[in-house]
Amino acid sequence: MKFLKWFLITVLGLFLAVVVYVTVIFDPNDFKPQIVDLVKQETGRELKIGSDLSWTFFPSLGIELGDISLSNPSGFENASMIAVNQVVAEVALMPLFKKEVEISQLNLDGLTLTLETQKDGRNSFDGLGDKQTANNQTSSPVEDSGSSNASLAKLDIGGIAITNTKITNIDHQSATEQVFALKELTLGRFQLGQFAALKYEFSAVLPDMELMSQGQGQIKIAQDLNTVTINEFVVKNQLKGASLPNGQLQADLNTSVVVALDKQTMNLVLSSFSAANINASGSLDVAYGKKVPNIVAKLEVGDVDLDALLPAESKNATDKPQQTQSSANAVEPDLTAMKSVNLDVDVRVKSVKVANLRTQNWVMQLVMQGGVANMKQLSADLYGGKIAASAKIDGRNKVAQYQFDKRLSNVDIRALLIDMAEVDMLDGTANFKVAGKGKSLLPDNLKKNLVANGQFEIADGAIHGVNIPQMIRQAKAKLSGDMSSGAGATVQKTDFTSMTGSFNIAKGVVSNPDLDMSSPLIRLKGAGTANIINQALDYKLTTSVVGSLEGQGGDQRDALYGVEIPFAIKGTMTEPKFSLDTKALLDSKLKEETNKLKDSLFKKFGGL
User: How far apart are CA 312 and CA 110, in angstroms?
Assistant: First the structure.
């Protein structure tokens, strides 16, 4: 026992002697010149340590230093690349022998990082780490010892505070400057297996936008260091910029995250999200352990008004300049990134308004794997009816290929066309289906390369902007010598009970070979084309009167009953021009008079 007693006293005495030597005789500041010279030798930079280094050895092992700076390369606008006001770190000494880490404090204050990129491409990092990289390349390889089983018996941190951090990125090539400021990042009392308070406040000034962000929540690291949990993390963001709606945007979210480091998975629950009057919630599951990560996302979204998010200049801009500019600078989108992740996405949206088009109850189910995105379902309610579609896009090649199948049922076609394209031309309840395929995602190429076939049916509708029976009546009256018949109908529309037809799309032209419109007054058949590139219309129709025109202003059974009259539609989709072939009316009139003369002569000669 005496031996053990004196052994412990001797060890303690030696330790105290070392402490006395280090704290009294040994001065770490004596090495400051050597440190400065070494940095100068290795990097060519100037390292300055303004304040004295302060060490503690018992009961805690710690260091405090401050007023530190590292210069930028010679010739740069800003003299210092890195500047630190104060660093304080203290670790309890004795628990270290039991694999227990107790940090009483860890503070970093006043970190300033100024990064520059010169016009010739030189930047603030040039010359840093070159020798270290070379040494790593020539050193002998280290054998992989397998997965790490490192663990701590205890980790206790009194608190971590990173305050007044500022990062400035100056790019002289693009004449831009970005400023990032971390006002504070604090972690409260932290122990393994227990939640600790986490808080941050951050801001950024970008060339076209300013960001203010702050958040707080709870974080926990499991005792085995394999699981990180962030609970009820509330984040508030405020953005300001000319490109934002009304010049600013508030975006808030409340989320919880669990990261399993051993299983290489992450599970995120989005309890709430709100931005620009859009509210959402959902979940995100990520498995990142494989070469191609798998992501499963589910999202519930409220009302979405995309038109309100567009800046005023975008809403008022005309389409033609945009098309000219996009065509001149057109570059095929690179979709190779689609091969780097597998997706399974399920999105439900209460309503969407975009380009003044209004839809409700959206359901989208998308699966992407191996560079191929398959939208298995895209459905919504719109204008009294429904839309249902499926599509596939293959991004494995340089030029993307796609195919689709789309159906509309019982849709108010007039309301849809007015809101979608500002075209008031057709009325009625529409059923529509189209299937097609193509390649290239450039707007112009989309129109040129699209190949599709479809059918349509419109019931109980009308053609707005033209009154065909009135046009026939006026033309016939003038041919009969009544030049006073020039007043137009008060309502410029032609009612019909049904309109059907099929169409195909190729090389930017929609061809309709079998248009068939029926009404109690007229029948209309014909064929024509609509160019979706220049919007031009070219329809040749045949109209025949099958009943009295009394329903739309006529007062007797029409003499042109059964006569086919050519009718044409020219112009554009937004400004169609309707015309009647009066020559055909004249021919039919001559034919009618000729038949009357034949009948009269036949009767006069006794039916011979």
Answer: 41
User: Could you check whether the bond before residue 520 is cis, i.e. omega within 30 degrees of 0?
Assistant: no
List the alpha helices (DSSP H) in 108-237. 130-138
Helices assigned H by DSSP within 236-385: 312-316, 319-328
Where residue 515 falls among pLDDT bands split at 50, 70, 90?
Answer: very high
| DSSP state letter for 308 | G
Angle, vertex CA 607, rays to CA 605 and CA 608, nearest 5: 75
> Distance of CA 387 to CAs 332, 348, 377, Å?
29, 15, 10
For the chain, report the end-to-end CA distance as a whole number of angstroms.
155
Describe the crossing of helices 468-479 and 582-604 by its angle, rounded to 10 degrees: 60
- Of the CA atoms within 13 Å of residue 346, those in its CB half-sphere come to 6
Angle at Cα 561 formed by Cα 567 and Cα 500, nearest 5°? 50
CA–CA separation, 375 vs 364, rounded Å?
7
Residue 104 near residue 60 (C-beta atoms within 8 A)? yes
Q: Which two three-digit tokens encode residue 227?
A: 């699981």
How big is the CA angle at 236 (ends 230 and 240), to the nearest 5 degrees? 145
Residue 118 and residue 124 in contact, taking contact as beta carbons nearer than 8 Å? no
CA proximity to 354, closest of 346, 365, 362 = 362
Q: For residue 554, is pLDDT > 50?
A: no
**Confidence (pTM):** 0.69
Burial class (CB in 10 A: 0-12, 13-18, 19+), 349: buried
What six digits make up the tokens of 303?
A: 């009302």
Contacts of 526 (CB under 8 A, 6+ apart): 515, 539, 540, 541, 542, 567
Q: Are 267 and 255 in contact (CB under 8 A)?
A: no
d(CA 215, CA 230): 12
Other Cβ atoms within 10 Å of 137 Cβ, number: 7
Q: 10 Å Cβ neighbour count for 401?
A: 17
**Could you tell me which residues come within 8 angstroms of residue 388 by beta carbon, excluding any fewer than 6 positions away?**
377, 378, 379, 406, 407, 409
In sequence order, the 6+-apart residues with CB closer than 8 A to the CB of 328 are none
pLDDT per position as a tens digit, 191-224: 889 999 999 999 998 888 899 999 999 999 998 8
Contact 547, 575 (CB under 8 A): no
Q: In the numeric block, which tokens belong to residue 556?
A: 């007797």
The answer to whether the Cα torsion of 205, 210, 215, 221 is positive or negative is negative
**55 close to 23: Cβ distance less than 8 angstroms:** yes
Helix (H, G, I), strand (E, B) or coil at 573: coil
Would you say how long the chain is, in residues?
A: 608
Distance of CA 583 to the CA centre of its chain: 56
Gap between the Cα atoms of 444 and 442, Å rounded: 6
Tokens standing for 132? 């270290």
d(CA 546, CA 591): 18
φ/ψ of 279, rounded to 5, equals -115, 140
Q: Is 9 helix (H, G, I), strand (E, B) or coil?
A: helix
Write the pLDDT tens digit of every residue in 574-594. 788 888 766 655 665 566 556
Contact between residue 472 and residue 549 where contact means Cβ atoms under 8 Å apart: yes
